[in-house]
Amino acid sequence: MSDVLEKLSQVLEERKGADPDKSYVAKLYSKGLDSILKKVGEEATETVIAAKGGNREEIVYETADLWFHSMVMLKHLGLEPEQVLMELQRRFGLSGLEEKENREK
Ligand SMILES: N=c1c2ncn([C@@H]3O[C@H](COP(=O)(O)OP(=O)(O)OP(=O)(O)O)[C@@H](O)[C@H]3O)c2ncn1[C@@H]1O[C@H](COP(=O)(O)O)[C@@H](O)[C@H]1O
C-alpha cells in the first residue's frame, strides 16, 4: 500500500482511543456511523461539483477529502483500507466490460 495511506491508516487506528475534543477523527468516531456517512456523502458531492467546475487543484483537494472520510468510514466499521486496495489489486487485468458481462449472465 502507498506509504501515505498506510501511515494514515495507522493514525486512524490510533485515534480509536483518542479524546474527541483533541482529534477530528476521534470526534467523528464518537458521533457514529450516520455522521460519518453524512461527511462521505458531502465530500462525494463536493468532488462531483469540483470535477464539473474543472479547477484541477480543487478536484485533488476534494478527492482527498472523499478518500480520507471513506477511510474513516471503513475503520469505523472494522474494515481496513488495505482490503479495498487488495480488491483493486484482484481486479488487475480483468476488463470492466468482461466482468460486467459475466455478472449479467
Ligand atoms: N487527512 C485528514 C483530513 N482531511 C480532511 N480533514 C478534516 O475534515 C474536515 C472536512 O470537513 P469540511 O471540509 O466539510 O469542513 P468543516 O466544515 O470544518 O467540517 P465539519 O465541521 O462539517 O465536520 C475538516 O475539518 C478537515 O480538517 C482531515 N482531518 C484529518 N486528516 C488526517 O487525520 C489525521 C488525524 O487527525 P486528528 O484526528 O484531527 O488528529 C491528521 O494528522 C491527518 O493526517
Describe the structure.
By secondary structure, this protein is an all-alpha fold. It has one domain (about 5-105): MazG-like (Helix Hairpins, Orthogonal Bundle). It contains 6 helices and no strands. The chain has helices spanning about 5-15, 25-30, 35-55, 55-75, 80-90, 95-105. The longest helix has 21 residues, at about 35-55. The mean pLDDT is about 95. It binds phosphoribosyl ATP (PRT). Phosphoribosyl ATP binds near residues 24 and 26.
Largest sheet: none
Work out the radius of gyration. Answer: 16 Å
What is the tally of helical segments? Answer: 6
Instruction: Tell me the strand percentage band.
Output: under 5%
Query: Could you say which overall geometry the principal axes of the C-alpha atoms support?
Result: globular
Bound compounds, please? phosphoribosyl ATP
**Secondary-structure element series:** HHHHHH
- The strand count comes to 0
Summing up helix and strand content along with how strands pair, one would put the structural category as mainly alpha
Give the uncertain stretches in residue-range form. Answer: none
CATH fold assignment: Helix Hairpins
> What's the CATH H-level superfamily name?
MazG-like
**Count of discrete domains:** 1
Spatial gap, N to C terminus: 34 Å
The CATH class name reads Mainly Alpha
Helix content: over 70%
Summarize, please.
This protein is an all-alpha fold and 105 residues long.
How are the elements arranged and paired?
Elements: H1 3-14, H2 24-31, H3 33-53, H4 56-76, H5 81-90, H6 96-104
Helix pairs in contact: 3-4
This protein binds phosphoribosyl ATP.
Phosphoribosyl ATP (PRT) is lined by residues 8, 11, 15, 23-26, 65, 68.
